[in-house]
Amino acid sequence: ETGVTQTPRHLVMGMTNKKSLKCEQHLGHNAMYWYKQSAKKPLELMFVYNFKEQTENNSVPSRFSPECPNSSHLFLHLHTLQPEDSALYLCASSQLGRETQYFGPGTRLLVL
Amino acid sequence: EDQVTQSPEALRLQEGESSSLNCSYTVSGLRGLFWYRQDPGKGPEFLFTLYSAGEEKEKERLKATLTKKESFLHITAPKPEDSATYLCAVQPNSGGSNYKLTFGKGTLLTVNP
Q1: What is the mean pLDDT of residues A71-92?
Q2: Beta strands A107-111 and B30-38, pairing class
Q3: A25, A104, B57, B109 — which has fewest CB within 10 A?
Q4: At a CB cut-off of 8 Å and minimum separation 6, what does A9 contact?
Q5: Best residue in B46, B50, B100, B101 to probe A by mutation, most A CBs within 10 Å?
Q6: Chain A positions in Cβ-Cβ contact with residue B27 (cut-off 8 Å)
Q7: Which residues on A lie below 8 Å from B100 (Cβ)?
Q8: Could you give the CA distance from residue A4 to residue A14 in angstroms, rounded to a whole number?
């Protein structure tokens, strides 16, 4: 595997379900990010982790819960989501001190 | 607050018809301006980083330029495979938040054969 990978690529869940999104980066980076991309809207930064420590929570509802067990893995735990949470969820990584963020392919989430 | 406005929202070109995409920005000190390409259902793919006014970067048929208020992505003799959404983002040079990217909504480019 190379770059940034995300699983699953597609997810359909009910409003009462609990699911998790997984991201793994193979670039040796030490910062990881979750973004939300909705139709007709710019990418929205959700969470930032530097060296496994959360440094940013961009006013994200508590039904989204991130976890970063190490510098290579990032999870987004989902519970009691709303239909308006349907979107493309993107993971990215970067090397602190270097600005460029590299993105994974995303998870397309549909909440019914 | 950092802001990025991209225009046009959509652009349709014939193969070989050169054009430019615009990215206007306001930021509290620019650390970097980024261009990404995004294909449907995929994540953004990094193209360029520009750091200071007057800087230019090229890659195949793409050339990015930067001024103090805007950036242009020039596409020379485009091919159908250049069809994608092109995203612009800025990163501020402000203390502990200098990793933050503020994105525009993108320009959807369609190149017809």
Answers
A1: 95
A2: unpaired
A3: B57
A4: A105, A106, A107, A108
A5: B101
A6: none
A7: 45, 48, 56
A8: 27
